[in-house]
Amino acid sequence: MSYNSEDxxxxxxxxxxxxxxxxxEADGNHAMLDSDELxxxxxxxxxxxxxxxxxxxxxxxxxxxxxxxxxLLFKARVALIEExxxxxxxxYTEMIEDKADLDYYYMKAEILLAGGHAAEAxxxxxxxxxxxxxxxxxxxxxxxxxxxxxxxxxxxxxxxLRRVDDEDLIEYKEQKARIMxxxxxxxxxxxxYNELIDKxxxxxxxxxxxxxxxxxxxxIEDSIRSxxxxxxxxxxxxxxxxxxxNGLYNLGNYAEALKFYLRYNExxxxxxxxxxxxxxxxxxxxxxEGAISHLRKAEELSLPQSSNLVDIYKDWAFxxxxxxxxxxxxxxxxxxxTLNCDHDEMMVYRGSLLIGAGRYRESKACFxxxxxxxxxxxxxxxxxxxxxxxxGELEMAYxxxxxxxxxxxxxxxxxxxxxxxxxxxxxxxxxxxxxxxAVEFSPKxxxxxxxxxxxxxxxxxxxxxxxxxxxxxxx
Length: 475
What we know:
The chain is mainly alpha-helical. The protein contains 27 helices and no strands. The protein has helices spanning 12-26, 35-47, 51-64, 69-82, 86-94, 102-114, 118-129, 137-150, 154-161, 170-182, 186-199, 204-216, 220-233, 238-250, 254-267, 272-284, 288-301, 309-322, 326-334, 343-356, 360-373, 378-390, 394-407, 415-424, 428-441, 443-450, 463-474. Helix 6 (102-114) packs antiparallel against helix 7. The mean pLDDT is 93.
């Protein structure tokens, strides 16, 4: 929950307000701040994890400024977002005295959105739109678009943003960039954030957003550089540290990535994501005990419905399996039974760990159950074949992949693995035939599975011709 940009809290303006507040508190007095300034201070503490103190500041603000918009909106949003209490959010909103304030309109609409009533929220704001002063109209539609964006309603956000007359407004470009990012238009997104950075080169928010756009367009090194600019502006910027860590991880520099995940974790100790990523980096460095410690902490921090729990349990189980604690590994995997995930895939994963532990009869039972429960899905059959290949059982994997394609004539995924089996088993002609199909059907996957056989910068489209020539030359 944030009203202000992260850059505002670094500004001299806010630092002056915070200093006056903290000095008054230290002297046992109430700071002489207006309601908006008190809410800014409360949000600062809220964003640093001190929610209780933030709410105490808001209560103080309301005791001095009853009916004031900003503190009541803060209470309403806490009720809505943190407590999921729509009724309480409505009650706080109705306590606002100035019901012509635009923020009052936004809050009423957000309550509708939180309840899943997007059409009603749009209709409500349309009615208010006709009465907005001309001087405020562009900002009203931009803020409305931002509200729908917060609830991931791209169509509504675009509808409202199209009404902006002055497309040079910074606020317009910010929301336009957000829409581009969510729709996967990373090139357009990068262009807009570069324009915004030209206007404000010291904005950590813009640098972080540019870094994210670059990361998702696979410009990893550029993403790292943008993160470094943000870190130079504020070495304790959590988003920048996380972006740089993700970039380093993506380049395979796990040791350096770990350093930045640890720095991120110091700033956000209650974030399961940080603990999970630290655990995964330790897993990749074969520090299984350390990985388990952080993955257990990640579980403790996770809400029961967290989408991260599946990955946490998979990595935790893998670490236990590597330590030879197979029964504990299976107990951890049992925790996924109640989660909203692909249980057939989880059964295949269970079987793959049992192969690694040499418990072949149990792994076979897992694979058979996965096939039965999935209705003999070719997707699950393929994942079983991959698990067998990765477990080092090349002959069996070769037979499974051939069976997959024999019984599913339209199935085109997995040829890269069959090609890998053929290569490792010395079946040259079959390797070339399956490599050709893999390049045709799955160019990205073929690079991941077979890239080790080719020059690093070679494109998958050139794999077949290169390998055919190489093998012919070797005859």
